[in-house]
User: Fold this.
Amino acid sequence: MSISEETKLWIASAERDRDTVEILQTSNRPPYEIIAYHCQQCAEKYLKAIFIERGRKPPYVHDLLKLNRDCAEFCHELESVESDCERLTPFGTITRYPGSIMEPSAAHMPWVTGWMENIRNAVQSCLSKPNV
Assistant:
């Protein structure tokens, strides 16, 4: 299936966040809160790409679970990543400012990047089907 040019722009932006994750993880001093933030941003942009592909304006929210549930009506595969969306959401807001109650570490990165990849893969699967 061919996707719209605007959807491709959202995907490209999401992929830049994913590239940023990969680059930052190889740093001598990885900024784990920034890596987690870009994981959340990648997932958020992928979910919003579904809205774009459906000709709808994406809502101005950072809650991945809400976005996912809104998109799941078009693509039932997204139901399988609900828990990943819920777990990844806080990294888009809470970890962005000093004094956060969440301080991701190297030990968290396999989970955080895994949630991002699961959401990314589910959205890519949805976008490859007709009538997303």
In short: The domain at 5-127 is CATH 1.20.120.330 (Four Helix Bundle (Hemerythrin (Met), subunit A)). The chain has one domain: 5-127.
